[in-house]
Amino acid sequence: MKRQTEIIRISILGIIVNILLVIFKGIVGFISGSIAIILDALNNLTDVLSSVITIIGAFLSNKRPNKKHPYGFGRIEYLTSVIIACIVLVAGITSFHESFNKIVKPTTATYSIASFIIIIVAVLTKYFLGHFVKGKGNELKSSSLVASGQDAINDAYISFSTLIGAILSYFCNISIEGYIGLLISLVILKAAFGILKSTIDDMIGVRTDSKITDELKNELKSYKEVQGVSDLIIHNYGPNKIIATAHIQVDDNMTAKEIHRLTRRMTMDIYEETGIIITIGIYASNDKNEYKDILNNIKKIIKDYKNILQLHGFYVDDEKKIISFDIIFSFDELKPEIAVQEIKSKLKELYPKYDFNIIIDSDFSD
Fold it and tell me: In which residue ranges of the chain is pLDDT below 50?
């Protein structure tokens, strides 16, 4: 609730500031006849709409999970970012069209000292507001706020370009209004595509930052009973809802009671420290004594395969005569199944009494 309140508070601040800028820039633009300033005001109007959508998204994303949506509604924030990007995109296309017309049919704008003061205030206001909103967005893990903050910073540069144009027009009688408007439209379009790409990546699912996965793996490895960590997968159901799964390797002499105590302690510790809900699976280990030579021979064989990144989960079931392990292939490997069959054949020659159970894993995290 605190996160939602903070997002709404910042968004309301953005709405107030942008409405004031739209009013003042609109007045200056129409009085002076400057297409660049009018488009700048239009750009600020899109920011107002962006902030309103961010507030709506914050409300909706905070809804409690239900039977149909057990993971909650956190991903709604990604949808609001897409809507914001589309609004910015429309503004950019409109700006491009109007600016091009201004180049084809140029008119001279007239400025006053008051116009310069308003534009300067607008530049400083948007610049500092943008950094504030973006910083809060990163702090709160809100893609909508980050998008709005970056848009505000871009607006500051846009307003600065209109200031340069106004100065050249006022002091040098040089009219570059249409060209500045064209530049503004390109900046707006670039920002729109940037927001859209980033948000769509989040919606599809991107590789988790190695800093996060490294910290989580190190935390799991810090327990003395844990011999190794693998298969770490992180699922993101919104900025405030992260679910993870991982396998830990432990000695095969541990009892069910000992394993239960260990995994329960680990899941509680990680949740309290990071807020991540993690499910932990178990790999039993018996690779330190009589089966160490088998493991070393397997490692020698897979060395010849450049797209194999890791081997884990090694276990020899002498009773059933099964040797099992998992292999992680890089995404460069197009036919991992063929490679696994080759490895099985080579191992069968060395250990004809055993069958081999090899699972192909994907490279989900570093």
Answer: none
